[in-house]
Amino acid sequence: MRQLLQESYSSKRPVEIIYMDDKGCLTQRFIIVYKIYPQSVKAWCLLRNEKRTFKIENILSCGFSNKRKSSFRQKAHSI
User: Fold this and answer.
1) In order along the chain (79 residues), what is the average pLDDT of each group of 10 residues?
2) In degrees, to the nearest 5, what angle opens at C-alpha 70 toward C-alphas 63 and 42?
3) HSE-up of 16 (CA within 13 Å, CB side)?
4) How far is CA 77 from CA 20, 24, 28, 53, 61, in A?
5) Whole-model pTM?
6) Number of domains the chain contains
7) 18 — phi, psi (to 5°)?
8) What are phi and psi of 32, to 5 degrees?
9) Residue 14, number of CB atoms within 10 A of its CB
10) Which residues are 79's β-sheet partners?
11) What is the pLDDT of residue 11?
12) What CATH code is carried by the domain that includes residue 58?
């Protein structure tokens, strides 16, 4: 998983994650990683349209999506 997050960071490609928040709620997110820390990642969240921090331990799955949106590239260039 960390390797995919690193690839998102390097290529500015969005990844699709399934994330569990601190309350146990699951959400599907499309994110573009711009900083990786040992315990978390900072990323542009395409659902919320803002920068967010995600705990790596709460990312249940991660993968590149086949979906194409023009906003992906626009957001990637502005990070």
Assistant:
1) 92 95 94 96 95 97 74 50
2) 50
3) 8
4) 27, 32, 23, 19, 25
5) 0.80
6) 1
7) -105, 120
8) -120, 115
9) 26
10) none
11) 92
12) 2.30.30.100
Provide the pLDDT for residue 1.
86
Q: Which is nearest to 52 in space by CA: 73, 79, 25?
A: 79
**Residue-number span of the structural domain to which 74 is assigned:** 2-78
Q: Do 78 and 20 meet the contact criterion of CB atoms below 8 Å apart?
A: no
Residue that has been written with the tokens 């991660």 in this structure? 62
DSSP string, 28-49: EEEEEEEEE-SSEEEEEETTTT
**Cα–Cα nearest to 72, from 45, 52, 54, 51:** 45
Residue listed under structure tokens 């542009």: 44
C-alpha torsion 45→75→62→47, nearest 10: 30
